[in-house]
UniProtKB/TrEMBL annotation:
<comment type="similarity">
    <text>Belongs to the cytochrome P450 family.</text>
</comment>
<dbReference type="InterPro" id="IPR002401">
    <property type="entry name" value="Cyt_P450_E_grp-I"/>
</dbReference>
<protein>
    <submittedName>
        <fullName>Cytochrome P450</fullName>
    </submittedName>
</protein>
<feature type="binding site" description="axial binding residue">
    <location>
        <position position="398"/>
    </location>
    <ligand>
        <name>heme</name>
    </ligand>
</feature>
<keyword id="KW-0479">Metal-binding</keyword>
<dbReference type="InterPro" id="IPR036396">
    <property type="entry name" value="Cyt_P450_sf"/>
</dbReference>
<keyword id="KW-0503">Monooxygenase</keyword>
<dbReference type="InterPro" id="IPR017972">
    <property type="entry name" value="Cyt_P450_CS"/>
</dbReference>
<dbReference type="InterPro" id="IPR001128">
    <property type="entry name" value="Cyt_P450"/>
</dbReference>
<keyword id="KW-0349">Heme</keyword>
<keyword id="KW-0408">Iron</keyword>
<dbReference type="GO" id="GO:0005506">
    <property type="term" value="F:iron ion binding"/>
</dbReference>
<dbReference type="GO" id="GO:0004497">
    <property type="term" value="F:monooxygenase activity"/>
</dbReference>
<dbReference type="GO" id="GO:0020037">
    <property type="term" value="F:heme binding"/>
</dbReference>
<dbReference type="InterPro" id="IPR050196">
    <property type="entry name" value="Cytochrome_P450_Monoox"/>
</dbReference>
<dbReference type="Pfam" id="PF00067">
    <property type="entry name" value="p450"/>
</dbReference>
<dbReference type="GO" id="GO:0016705">
    <property type="term" value="F:oxidoreductase activity, acting on paired donors, with incorporation or reduction of molecular oxygen"/>
</dbReference>
Length: 469
């Protein structure tokens, strides 16, 4: 229970150097969420603080703690935006502060309810044709036998899909121009935190504001356009139309923040999932062959329709298994709104608690042979939302989960039928950081789909977290 009498025994604590130790450990869990989580769990068990004698930064592992942290949103809150020191009324503040992942309680509930219709299953079906078309455009550009940097390609692809489905733009160059602008602003987070807020030409903060103003202006113009277009079927059009029973709609400022978050949340995670799915398939030739046989049997070389995508259980299993083994969001955190108790230990108000979908997915009591890629396990396996949580659980569960799963399926079904991607032998493979990007890239050769599936020798830390047998 998260409340009740806390035990007097000391919380197990990771060793830490004096002064910097806690911060070094916080950095480690963000930068190496898989290997460091694994080490913490193996060394200290299911709950551990990141510095001796300091219960204000804690890591809690396993489905029972996931349940406690995610099913009590009033006690365990999301607190990201509070660290931002951005002046009120600026475009920067509108872009970075107004988003579901910075909201709690009634405010979050009201905003999420307004956004939900844009992500209903029926509405997501409307984005399917765009997903297919943009994937096919990418495949047209690839040349047989050329070497590509797969992760960069997947990032570009998911960027195009998210911009296209958000705004309904048709011109490819415009999609890329807007994608670049979004990317530039998204990477401003760190400089923005480190730069004094002095808005004078020539200083970094001025440049940051100018970029944010451009994006704010573009999104505002798109909102005005969507208010005129009654037939549009993109995400922004659905958000603009959305209203509650009292007729309350999302304001322009709210829409701007939400659109920016949808861009960020919507493409880096999905590109990571695609890259890892293609890597895991490559290193498991029998499964790769079986997936292609399934695609042949259902699609016969055609583009995947919504109906046909429902008939691909093995591909479903590949996606579920990729998100289990290498979840694009391997750790998350919550903040204690009150002094409380967790696992029998007293935590102060304001304590930050990390939880780890990655480690939960590796527990042998939940998953047999947890480090192996076994998509077929999902034919019979069913797990609770706290035992399998690549999209988190509870009130902040990913709003785009169905969108992402459809997108991953469309891309894989379209790509695998046409090409066999061959990993460059001896590549150093390592998932890194809180978004699981491959640290050294993922170089692949684009081969015609000749069904000559074969794994290659690899190097790198991936071998410590996935068993290739
Ligand atoms: C494989 C792809 C994706 C993964 C693994 C993923 C994962 C997650 C996770 C773990 C959270 C919750 C974080 C927490 O509880 O602390 C989340 C929230 C969210 N995601 Fe995703 N996501 C993916 C794709 C998408 C896409 C495609 C969109 C939109 C187009 C999206 C939009 C959102 C939004 C708006 C939230 C905030 C929900 C809320 O706070 O109520 N995500 N996502």
């Amino acid at each position: 229970m998260a409340t009740g009498v806390a035990s007097q025994k000391a919380l197990p604590a990771a060793s830490a150097l004096p002064l910097v130790g806690k911060w070094a450990n916080i950095f480690k869990i963000s930068n190496e969420p898989c290997t460091y989580s694994r080490w913490l769990y193996d060394t200290y068990g299911s709950i551990v603080s990141l510095a001796p004698g300091d219960p204000s930064w804690v890591v809690a592992f396993g489905s029972e703690f996931n349940f406690q942290l995610l099913s009590q949103p009033a006690l365990f809150e999301l607190r990201k935006g509070k660290i931002l020191n951005v002046p009120e009324g600026t475009s920067l503040r509108r872009l970075f502060i107004t988003n579901l992942l910075d909201m709690n309680g009634e405010h979050h509930k009201q905003q999420r309810q307004l956004m939900q219709p844009a992500f209903h299953k029926k509405q997501i079906g409307l984005y399917h044709n765009d997903m297919v078309a943009i994937t096919q455009q990418m495949l047209e550009r690839w040349q047989p036998h050329e070497q590509i940097e797969l992760h960069a390609e997947m990032k570009k692809l998911t960027q195009r899909i998210v911009i296209k489905t958000l705004f309904g733009l048709n011109d490819e160059q415009e999609i890329d121009r807007i994608g670049t602008l979004f990317d530039k602003v998204a990477t401003l987070f760190l400089p923005m935190m480190l730069t004094p807020n002095i808005d004078v030409p020539g200083l970094p903060y001025h440049r940051i504001l100018k970029l944010a103003d451009q994006l704010d202006g573009f999104t505002r113009a798109m909102i005005a356009r969507k208010r005129q277009e009654t037939e549009a079927s993109d995400v922004l059009a659905a958000l603009v139309q959305a209203h509650d029973e009292e007729g309350t709609k999302l304001s322009d400022d709210e829409l701007i923040g939400h659109v920016f978050t949808l861009y960020g949340a919507g493409h880096t995670t999905t590109s990571s999932a695609l890259t890892w799915a293609l890597f895991l398939l490559h290193q498991h030739p029998r499964i790769h062959a079986d997936v292609l046989a399934e695609l042949d049997g259902v699609l016969h070389g055609a583009a995947p329709s919504l109906e046909s995508l429902r008939q691909l259980p093995l591909l479903d299993g590949v996606i579920k298994e990729t998100l289990r083994l290498l979840p694009p969001a391997p750790i998350s955190m919550r903040t204690a709104a009150e002094a409380c108790e967790l696992g029998g230990y007293a935590l102060p108000k304001g304590a930050t608690i990390f939880f780890s979908p990655f480690m939960t997915h590796r527990l042998p009591e939940l998953y047999e042979e947890p480090n192996r890629f076994k998509p077929e396990r999902w034919a019979t396996l069913s797990r609770t939302p706290y035992e399998y949580l690549p999209f988190s659980a509870g009130v902040h569960r990913c709003l785009g989960a169905e969108f992402a799963q459809l997108e991953i399926k469309v891309v894989l079904a379209t790509m695998l039928q046409r090409y066999r991607l061959a990993l460059v032998p001896n590549t150093n493979v390592e998932p890194k950081g809180s978004d699981m990007d491959p640290a050294h890239g993922m170089p692949m050769r684009v081969m015609p789909q000749d069904r000559q599936f074969a794994r290659v020798p690899i190097r790198g830390k991936i071998q410590n977290i996935v068993d290739f047998v």
